[in-house]
């Protein structure tokens, strides 16, 4: 049986931040895999989640908490070529020129929205729709 990146990520659906001074230990582990500074789970952690899932499968990863760092991982492809559960989608946040971003696994296209399975979507791991105009890039990761 082959376990895919999507299979691993889907196991984390529902993982969420803990409000207040307590933090979710799973999210802290994701954050601290590549950065020692986060003291709590109330920071951007979408890239940390994707890095964690890739680490579990020994796949290439960005090793950064910056969502846009995923634009340097894998092979660039067009959104129309994206395969659900296999390809990484990077979005701009706030504005296109900003350093801020969001990253997750492509989960499909529905009602004019790009679906992403990602961390830090409403402070949790879930599948959410995003405006395709916000897509900065799509990356295909190599197989193990």
Number of DSSP strand runs: 6
Structural class: alpha+beta
Q: Report the sheet with the most strands, covering strand number, pairing sense and barrel closure.
A: 6 strands, antiparallel
Distance between the termini: 14 Å
Shape descriptor reads globular
Strand portion, in percent? 25-35%
How many alpha or pi helices? Answer: 3
Average pLDDT figure: 94
The domain count comes to 1
Q: What is the CATH first-level class name?
A: Alpha Beta
Which topology does CATH recognise? endopeptidase fold (from Nostoc punctiforme)
Rg of Cα set: 14 Å
How would you portray this structure in words?
The chain is an alpha+beta fold. It has a single domain (5-140), classed as endopeptidase fold (from Nostoc punctiforme) (Alpha-Beta Complex), CATH 3.90.1720.10. It has helices at residues 5-10, 25-32, 46-56; strands spanning 75-77, 87-92, 101-110, 113-121, 124-130, 135-140. Strands 1-6-2-3-4-5 form a 6-stranded antiparallel β-sheet. Strand 3 and strand 4 (113-121) form a beta hairpin. The longest helix is centred in the middle third of the chain and has 11 residues, at 46-56. The protein is globular.
């Amino acid at each position: 049986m082959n376990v895919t990146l999507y299979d691993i990520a889907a196991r984390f659906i529902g993982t969420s931040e803990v409000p207040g001074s307590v933090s979710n230990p799973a999210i802290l582990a994701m954050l601290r895999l590549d950065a020692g500074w986060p003291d709590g789970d109330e920071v951007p952690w979408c890239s940390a989640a994707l890095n964690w899932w890739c680490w579990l499968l020994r796949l290439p990863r960005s090793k950064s908490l910056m969502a846009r760092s995923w634009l340097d991982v894998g092979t660039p492809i067009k959104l129309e070529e994206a395969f659900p559960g296999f390809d990484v989608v990077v979005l701009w946040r706030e504005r296109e020129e900003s350093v801020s971003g969001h990253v997750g696994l492509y989960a499909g296209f529905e009602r004019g929205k790009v679906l992403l399975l990602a961390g830090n979507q409403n402070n949790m791991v879930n599948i959410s729709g995003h405006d395709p105009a916000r897509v900065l890039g799509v990356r295909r990761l190599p197989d193990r």
